[in-house]
Amino acid sequence: MFSHNKRLQYTVRVEECNPGLANLMLEQFGGPQGEMSAESRPPADVREGAYLIERPFPPGKLPGDPRFTRTYFDLSQGEAVPAPGPWNDPARFDVVSRLEDAIAVDGGSGMPSVGLTAEEEELVTAMALRTASDPQADPPAGAELGLGELERNDEL
């Protein structure tokens, strides 16, 4: 049975503009070099690049938070027993199995919060207006353009 809980494991607190954090989030979740993209790459690509790693933490990357580096969060809920292995060995890790104990582990409520200055809030609002989509727009799709029925400049 699947249960979706919208509370976050780590509380998100946006209190300032932080391009470094934005870059890290892009690397982890989006973009061609993102973590999600890396999951879909063939393992051979990863092995070929492994020799390039000189240190465990290259410049700009921090080691894990010591409060959590030796913690295994067993978030699989239900009757199925997780397969034992070195990744969840209680002798090597502090295993957290209760879902309630795995939410907001760094303090807080687990709900995101935003604390921007008035100037930053004004900039964010201006950007949201500038980049907003037009729900009434119906631009030609690439497939329609490929049919040759529309001239490229007709609809654009």
UniProtKB/TrEMBL annotation:
Coiled-coil residue windows: none
GO molecular function annotation: metal ion binding
Sequence positions that bind Mn(2+): 35
Source domain of life: Bacteria
Pfam families in the cross-refs: Mn_catalase (PF05067)
Keywords associated with the record: Manganese, Metal-binding
Protein name in UniProt: Manganese containing catalase
Record SUPFAM superfamilies: Ferritin-like (SSF47240)
Organism: Xylophilus ampelinus
Family membership: Belongs to the manganese catalase family.
Cofactor stoichiometry and binding remark: Binds 2 manganese ions per subunit.
Span list, region Disordered: 131-156
Necessary cofactors: Mn(2+)
Classification lineage: Bacteria, Pseudomonadati, Pseudomonadota, Betaproteobacteria, Burkholderiales
Gene3D superfamilies named among the record's database cross-references: 1.20.1260.10
